Amino acid sequence: MSTDTPAQSDTPAPRAPSRSFTEMTELLLPQHANVVGTAFGGVVLSWIDVCGAIAAQRHCGRIAVTAAIDDMQFLAPIRVGDVVRLTGRVNAAFRTSLEVEVQVEREDRKTMERTLCADALLTFVNRDEEGHPVPSPALAPETDDERQRVQDAIERRAARLAKKR
Known about the structure:
Elements (H helix, E strand, L loop, with lengths): L21 E6 L13 H20 L3 E11 L8 E11 L3 E11 L6 E13 L17 H21 L1
Antiparallel strand pairs: 1-3, 2-5, 3-4, 4-5
């Protein structure tokens, strides 16, 4: 089976993207901040990794480990005292791996308005109890947006694999 294509029928039953949706809420405390009072990037990356892992594990129904952070952008600062919302979802499932997107937003205390602060694409690998890669359940997109996310993920993966050659 080609590793460039989404998981096929010889894998566990397909699962809807909604199964993997994950939301986490954090409060940016002084110990999470750098010297100018904004989020230390490593803390945000750790939260992103946890959120992505939960989304991947919800999809697979088993352990999924981080293989790569494929794209990561900090877009706006998060300040001490800000409420931070992370959302994660599986964009595509491949033979043993998954692409997961995690978005990070801060909430304004007064208006409750949210601002996108970071966006990341990560690759996770579905593992068995001994740590060996195992087939991932296929993703069964239900909306046009979900189908487009799958297509975009396939294209990004092909570009990443082409760079390795």
